[in-house]
Amino acid sequence: MTSFIHAALGFITHAPTASTVASEVKFAADLINGISLVAFILVEGVLIYFVIKYRRRKGEANKQTLYLTHHTTAEIIWTVLPTLILGVIFYYGVASFVKLRNMPKDGEIIQLTGRQWLWDIKYPYCVKNAKTNAEKCIKLTSKNVNPTEDSIKSNKLQDELQKDQVRFVVAKGRKYVMQMTSTDVIHSFTIPAFYVKQDVVPGLTSRLWFEPTTVGEFVITCNEYCGDKHSGMLGMIQVMEPADFDKWKAEKLALLQKELDQDASGGPVDETALIAKGKELYGAKGCLACHNVSGAAGGAAPSFKGLYGKEEILTTGKIKVDDAYLKESMLKPAAKVVKGYAPMPNMGVEEGDVKYLVAFIKSLK
Q1: 137, containing H or E segment
Q2: Contact indicator for 352, 292 with CB cutoff of 8 Å
Q3: How far apart are CA 115 and CA 200, in angstroms?
Q4: CB 140 within 8 A of CB 127
């Protein structure tokens, strides 16, 4: 019965097709669903017909059932016809599979890292400071969400994502190759509207590619159970017109160049800008999933409010929370663990992020 429901609903539950390979994959899926639906109706129809026509009637208790050893015509039909159908399914399945596995040589390479329970994206767009030779590239990190039962039942989950989620931005009509790995467990990077999906495995580099064809915002999901916050490992990919994308990229690179030049100048630091950037990273790096800023106790990790300057009890002793301790805890989370809490997972914080996060924590007095 489940197969029948899936087949019957398959034509109306597929995501929109928003990439060059999507229509081919959707056609293969719809073909399989259609064949399954027809096969189900035929098999069940014949079964019901036989049950009614050949049922044993009153007075036939001792009637001997006809014993058939074989039926050559029927055996040829039920062997050849399914073989032909399987061949058609195989052809369309392989055609789309081969296209998905052949990475385009002219595709822009984007690095993606999956971790519990976020996606990190690194674009190949970077700027350098001529004086220090320091480099910064455009990077984005998704936010873990907490989908409620109401938002799922009322189909408002995408509205919630569009309101608060970080957008991974790409250009319509350009090819992108995702080079992907994981820092912890197996994840599965999936963009339903593009009809692409690939497992993301620790210690390995996997790849997929896509070429968006439709401007808009589309959901990213993790389709491999990866822990208790798996359902919140969502994201949004925003497809822009090429001109709008180039403008977005230029603005991002200009901000990074300004940060590099500020670091190299050695001049006075804009504390407000540091705190603002730290607050942005607090959300982007997923700190908010465990560290609240309200001072409330009972969370999965110590609150950031009033944390700076406080003496913490560790599993191995005591320590005063200062710049050095915060830096070490961000870059080497398991080095010093606060008593009563589990070791913090690696959240992908880089050395260049530390000063911003420290400034933000200091501001929460």
Answers
A1: strand 135-141
A2: no
A3: 9
A4: no
Tokens of 217: 């915002």
Contact 305, 318 (CB under 8 A): no
pTM across the whole model: 0.76
Q: Which residues are CB-neighbours of 8 under 8 A, at least 6 positions away?
A: 37
Helix 72-101, helix 22-53: angle, nearest 10: 160
Percent of the residues in the chain that have a pLDDT greater than 90, as a whole number:
38
Backbone region of residue 169 per phi and psi (left: phi > 0; alpha: psi in -120 to 50; beta: other values) = beta
Q: Which token pair is 59?
A: 């007075």
Residue 214 to residue 193: CA distance in whole angstroms: 10
Domains and CATH numbers, the chain: 2-54+68-101 (no CATH), 108-255 (2.60.40.420), 268-363 (1.10.760.10)
Q: What is the DSSP string of 188-214?
A: EEEEGGGTEEEEE-BT--EEEEE-B-S
Cα dist from 287 to 142, 210, 244, whole Å? 12, 31, 31
Of 169 and 307, which is predicted with more confidence? Answer: 169
Q: Ranked by mean pLDDT, which of 34-43, 64-73, 128-137 comes out on top?
A: 34-43
Question: How many CA atoms within 13 Å lie on the side-chain side of 110?
Answer: 23
The string over 92-116, giving b where at least 16 C-beta atoms fall within 10 Å of a residue's C-beta and e elsewhere, is bbeebeeebeeeeeebeebbbbbbb
Beta bridge partners of 317: 314
